[in-house]
Amino acid sequence: MRECISIHVGQAGVQMGNACWELYCLEHNIQPNGTMPSDKALGGGDDSFNTFFSETGAGKHVPRAVFVDLEPAVIDGVRTGIYRQLFHPEQLISGKEDAANNYARGHYTVGKEIIDLVLERIRKLLTPSLARGTENQE
User: Where in the numbering of this chain does the Tubulin/FtsZ GTPase domain appear (predicted)?
Assistant: First the structure.
């Protein structure tokens, strides 16, 4: 099985990512809280959405995605939006202030404060995907 991990960075990336996940949910009949109607889950047979979503033990589908922005407003919009229950809170990462359109400030100061957290979250998404790669392939 193929698995995709999405990384959405910055205001434009987060806004496009949020719209993209909304579209994925609509296409695969996944509710804004990550659940599927029981009639679709039982008789569906189409599990192509598993390329983009992980399924929890409770049957909730969570996007394999990380959203990152130095400025918290756009990420807060995802946290409070209609699809707020879809995303795992640890996958929505925001700083305390933006880089004010200054690359050096974003790279060397403000961004440096959250880069370790971002890399750790990506590693957590990536590790189970790599571990499954050792299973029998069809």
Answer: 49-138
Select from 98, 126, 3 the least CA-distant residue to 53: 3
**pLDDT digit string (tens) for 59-110?**
899 999 999 999 999 999 999 999 999 999 999 999 998 888 888 888 888 8
1 falls within a domain = no
Both tokens of 57, joined, read 């033990």
Q: Rounded to whole angstroms, how far apart are CA atoms 29 and 69?
A: 28
- Whether residue 137 lies inside any domain: the answer is no
CA 58, 66, 33, 48 dihedral sign is: negative
Q: Which residue has the tokens 């509710």?
A: 31
Instruction: Please identify which residue in the block is written with the tokens 């909304």.
Output: 22
pTM score, whole prediction: 0.85
**The amino acid at 93:** I
